[in-house]
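#struct-pred
JK: can someone run the complex with S-adenosyl-L-homocysteine? inputs below
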Amino acid sequence: MSEKSRRFPLPLEKVGKSPNAPARSVLMPQRHLREAALDAQRSAAPVGLGLDSAQVRARMVQRLRAEGLSDERVLDAFGHVPRHAFVDSALAIQAYEDTALPIGLGQTISKPSVVGRMLALLMQAQGARARGHLGKVLEIGTGCGYQAALLAQLGQAVVTVERLRLLYERALSNLEAIGMATRARLVFADGMLGHAPGAPYDSIVAAAGGEDIPSAWLEQLAPGGRLVAPMAVPGANTQVLVVIDHQSVGGASHFIRSEHEGVLFVPLKSGVV
Ligand code: SAH
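RT: done, structure tokens with the ligand placed:
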């Protein structure tokens, strides 16, 4: 068998199903148009959502209120930040459901009701109540940047730290896309060390749960400040929300700790990737 004839069956087999295909597409040019229109519809979904997203977002705010979130400033922040701009366009349709969604590298954008609860806990701190806002804020775990955008609505200055470079960059472009990049300072670093250059912070919030509260966070918490973080329950495969208030009495620091409801956050990890 010659080289040529040995190879011949292969192309024939490949061509086997295709003789009709070119003919069909030549005879039905409108098919391309129809497909293009369908494609356009599919890719237009997030844009369409963008146009009426204020209404969808208002419904999410209503649901959060109905489920017990009562801090009007937190609700207002949820009403202003377009959550769909922080998730992949294929997931935009689910952006206003009360659910965590994947943002890449095994991480998630946190569930709105849990974010709302944490922000409300921060707003209830004595200092925040007196001030009327969160003051200087440190967020550990920027992820896609959504909570950082909410914090920017509620605080005076926001520093947010992310250990995964890809997410740090994604958060930066997400915030740029909605014109909020200047409202939070994004830092690519290990947040277990907090961010000493910006310390002390009036409010610290973590979006990832570790075995314990890193000592750097307590050192960087201003007197009168509050920290809210998920923390693993020793010996159990669960996490709880931990609140720590820094009280300063006669120059001595007291850290008052309380534990709240169970939550489920991605793990707090050390080092940068
Ligand atoms: N704040 C996000 C949630 C992000 S998920 C939101 O708005 O929904 C938690 C993030 O914490 C992940 O991106 C993860 O990479 C990050 N993370 C975990 N350990 C960290 C650490 N030590 N320092 C900084 N970021 C950390």
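RT: quick notes.
The domain at 3-30+111-263 is CATH 3.40.50.150 (Rossmann fold).
The longest helix spans residues 29-66.
JK: thanks, will look after standup
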